Amino acid sequence: GAVVSQHPSRVICKSGTSVKIECRSLDFQATTMFWYRQFPKQSLMLMATSNEGSKATYEQGVEKDKFLINHASLTLSTLTVTSAHPEDSSFYICSAHYTGTGLEFFGPGTRLTVL
Amino acid sequence: KQEVTQIPAALSVPEGENLVLNCSFTDSAIYNLQWFRQDPGKGLTSLLLIQSSQREQTSGRLNASLDKSSGRSTLYIAASQPGDSATYLCAVHGGSSNTGKLIFGQGTTLQVKP
Question: Does any CB of chain A come closer than 8 Å to the CB of residue B58?
Answer without folding.
Answer: no
